[in-house]
Every structure is written in structure tokens, then in C-alpha cells.
């Protein structure tokens, strides 16, 4: 049996700091393949077994709840600013990078970052906040590579600048961040150093992160995550056929559609059709197909409560599922987007990052988040047994994601990545 490589996600956040004065994605085969589908694992939404013992205290649940509000606020703002484009990013990775940055932020710069991440220090201590984020890199950096996620941080510091040992100690202890002394004056060498590191740590998914490096940069923080999930029940490559994807009323493109008839949790509401597709490792991919004319409405109502409502409407049923095969990329200008969510000072001359360098005269001049999302049929041989899925007497409903749709991959507490696929060919 072939296994579908569900999603290869690679992203980064580039934070370049500069001195203030520098300014700055025919049904005749059904009878032949319905019996060929893999065993469906029960409890697809259960918690992933951790390789460490996570603190399940009340503060942890509060942090996850508050932080999820940031995830959805961020998505809605990006969707509003880019109404017709492909969108793909990792909310958990962005929040981790800025929580890491807050270690060195002071005064209002610090409070804006914490508040912007929707974390409430009047109800949760900052120690609990960083302890919670401390476990997220652990999750991403499983040393045995048994989990489908790989991620982390790296900080590149100008050879001309000192870095406070207290910051380095906390960065290593809480965020497992690597630190490299870098000669930014030698821009080509610095660029190659950073690109090589990211390429190696994302298994070649981002061969070139930066095309240039500012010779006046003080330091550059990168944050990356690579998701290499696999469907729990694979698609058969031989059933993939080209069909129409309706980008809008005036544009239709030909896209290869993967197809599978199987048991899935699905909901049919007044706003959208929602299908939950289990991945190996107990992560779940949620595919949301807004009804005609409802895309913007579904996006702007996309929040934790809406997902809970959909889950209440879920029924495990046999469906005839069609998903487009695609690879899309997205770039998010975090300086622009986060400013609208209340994180402003860190990008301005009012920035106080003196907890990093001991000096106040540094701000974030550039914050770019790049991501690549691929849904394709590359994979390896699957281990395990195959079980038949029960067939009803009636034909199953056909669910075809042939117009703009939303996708998110979640573990039991975080949105690992989220996207809008407006055109699978772009």
C-alpha cells in the first residue's frame, strides 16, 4: 500500500534587527477500489502521546486557550487583507518566535508582544507562559524523529555586538534556540550560513531562505517548522484524475484530484461542508469547503467556537472524497499584520530590546513569514494491516473540494498550520 505524504510545510520567520538611525494550494473505478482502503484508527482526535510529560495544569489550558485566540485573529486579519490569494502559515510557529523574542523585550515593547499574542499576565504568570512554550519546541524537536513535525529557532548575532548571557541562558533553556556569531559585513557568507542551516533542518524543503542580508543588521532570528504528515488512510495514486477547480466565477483551472471512498467525520451546515481527515500521529486535518458565496463569511467567523460547533455536527459516515493535489507557498509580512493586532513598538524607534543586547537602540526592521504547503502522493510503504470499511446500500455523498477552501492541521491543543487554497495552481 502506498502512503500519501499529506503535507510538507516549511516556514521561517526572519527578524532582522537594525540600529534606529538606519531607519528602515468518471466514477467507474469506485467498485474496484472501495475495498482497498486502510484500517481506520479509532480515536483520531485523541491526544498525541508525548515523549515528555506535559504539565496539564489549569494555567497550561488557559495559555493554550488564549493563544488559540491569537491564531484565529491572525488568520482573519490575513484573510481580510488578502481576500483572493492562497494563504498558508503556521500560527504556533509565529507565536513561539514572538514569545521567544519577548524574553529580551522590555517595558511597553514587552507588554505589547504578550498582549498581542492574546496572553493575559494578570491571570497567568510569565513563568507559566514560557514554560508552556518550552514544551512546544520539545514537541517539534523529537530527537528520534518519530513525530511528523520538525522545528526550532536559531539566532544569528553580529560579531560586532555582545549578547547578554542571561538572554542566551533563557533562550537555550526555554526555547532550545541555537546561537551563531555572524559577520554580517560579509553579506554573501552570512546569507549562505543562514540558508545552509535552514535547508539542512527542513530536509531541503527551503533551499534558499534569504536572497540577501543587510550588512548593518545586528542580529537575525529565524524560526522554522516542517510538517511531514501522512494520511492514516492513504489515497491510491492510480485513481488521481484531472478535473476542474473553480477559482471564481470567471476562472477555472485543471487540477489533478485525488479520490477515495471511505469513512470520515463530516458535517454539512448552512455555511460549509467540513471533513475531518486523520493523519498518522493523531494530528487531524480539517478541510472546510464554504458553500457558494460564503467564503468570506466563513473566514471571518473562523474561530475556536465555530470548530466546536462543526465537531458537534460531525457524523462518521461513508463519503466519496475528492481533494486537489497541490503545492502552494505563502509569504506574510508580519510587521504589517502584527501591527494591526497591537504589536507595534517592536517595529518602531520606540522598540526596547535591551534584554538581548543590553542596548535599547535596536528594532525589528523586517519580519517575514514564509511557508510551503504540499498535498501530494509521494510516500513510503506503509506497515500494518488492511481492513475493509463497511459499505452502505445507498451511494455515499460526493464531497469535492473544487472551489476555494480552508485547511488546518491541529494537534490536541494548537493549530500547527492553517491555509486558504484559492487556486491550487499558484
Q: Would you write up a description of this structure?
A:
Strand 6 (241-246) and strand 7 form a beta hairpin. By secondary structure, the chain is an alpha+beta fold. The radius of gyration is 22 Å and the shape is globular. It is built from eleven helices and 15 strands. Helix 3 (91-102) runs antiparallel to helix 4 (107-116).
Write the layout of secondary structure elements.
Layout: E1 5-18, H1 30-33, H2 58-81, E2 87-89, H3 91-102, H4 107-116, H5 126-140, E3 149-158, H6 165-175, E4 178-182, H7 187-201, E5 219-230, E6 241-246, E7 252-268, E8 272-278, E9 284-290, H8 295-300, H9 304-313, E10 315-324, E11 326-333, H10 334-339, H11 354-357, E12 363-375, E13 398-400, E14 405-410, E15 415-421
Parallel strand pairs: 3-4, 10-13
Antiparallel strand pairs: 1-5, 1-12, 2-15, 3-5, 6-7, 7-8, 7-10, 8-9, 9-14, 11-12, 14-15
Helix pairs in contact: 3-4
Amino acid at each position: 500500500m502506498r502512503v500519501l505524504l499529506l503535507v510538507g510545510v516549511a516556514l521561517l520567520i526572519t527578524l532582522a534587527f537594525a540600529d534606529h538611525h538606519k531607519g528602515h494550494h468518471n466514477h467507474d473505478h469506485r467498485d474496484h477500489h472501495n475495498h482497498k482502503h486502510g484500517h481506520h484508527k479509532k480515536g483520531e482526535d485523541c491526544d498525541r502521546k508525548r515523549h515528555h510529560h506535559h504539565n496539564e495544569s489549569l494555567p497550561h489550558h488557559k495559555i493554550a486557550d488564549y493563544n488559540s485566540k491569537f491564531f484565529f485573529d491572525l488568520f482573519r486579519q490575513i484573510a481580510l487583507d488578502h481576500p483572493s490569494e492562497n494563504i498558508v502559515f503556521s500560527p504556533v510557529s509565529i507565536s513561539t518566535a514572538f514569545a521567544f523574542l519577548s524574553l529580551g523585550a522590555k517595558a511597553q515593547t514587552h507588554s505589547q508582544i504578550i498582549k498581542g499574542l492574546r496572553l493575559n499576565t494578570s491571570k497567568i504568570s510569565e513563568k507559566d507562559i514560557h514554560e508552556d512554550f518550552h514544551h512546544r519546541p520539545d514537541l517539534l524537536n523529537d530527537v528520534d524523529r518519530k513525530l511528523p513535525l520538525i522545528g526550532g529557532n536559531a539566532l544569528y548575532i553580529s560579531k560586532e555586538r555582545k549578547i547578554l548571557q542571561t538572554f542566551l541562558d533563557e533562550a537555550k533553556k526555554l526555547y532550545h534556540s541555537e546561537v551563531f556569531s555572524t559577520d554580517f559585513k560579509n553579506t554573501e557568507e552570512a546569507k549562505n550560513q543562514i540558508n545552509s542551516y535552514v535547508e539542512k533542518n527542513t530536509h531541503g524543503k527551503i533551499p534558499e531562505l534569504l536572497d540577501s542580508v543587510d550588512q548593518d543588521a545586528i542580529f537575525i532570528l529565524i524560526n522554522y517548522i516542517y510538517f511531514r504528515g501522512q494520511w492514516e488512510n492513504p489515497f491510491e495514486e492510480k485513481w488521481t484524475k484531472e478535473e476542474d477547480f473553480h477559482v471564481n466565477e470567471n476562472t477555472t483551472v485543471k487540477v489533478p484530484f485525488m479520490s477515495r471512498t471511505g469513512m470520515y467525520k463530516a458535517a454539512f451546515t448552512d455555511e460549509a461542508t467540513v471533513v475531518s481527515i486523520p493523519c498518522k500521529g493523531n494530528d487531524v486535518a480539517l478541510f472546510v469547503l464554504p458553500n457558494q458565496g460564503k467564503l468570506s463569511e466563513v473566514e471571518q467567523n473562523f474561530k475556536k467556537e465555530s470548530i466546536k460547533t462543526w465537531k458537534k455536527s460531525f457524523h462518521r459516515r461513508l463519503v466519496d472524497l475528492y481533494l486537489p493535489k497541490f503545492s502552494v507557498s505563502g509569504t506574510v509580512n508580519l510587521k504589517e499584520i502584527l501591527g494591526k493586532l497591537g504589536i507595534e513598538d517592536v517595529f518602531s524607534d520606540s522598540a526596547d530590546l535591551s534584554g538581548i543586547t543590553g542596548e535599547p537602540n535596536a528594532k525589528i526592521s523586517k519580519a517575514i513569514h514564509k511557508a510551503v504547503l504540499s498535498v501530494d502522493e509521494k510516500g513510503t510503504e506503509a506497515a500494518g494491516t488492511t481492513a475493509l470499511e463497511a459499505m452502505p446500500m445507498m451511494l455515499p455523498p460526493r464531497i469535492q473540494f473544487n472551489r476555494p477552501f480552508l485547511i488546518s492541521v491541529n494537534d490536541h491543543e494548537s493549530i500547527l498550520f492553517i491555509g486558504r487554497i484559492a487556486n491550487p495552481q499558484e
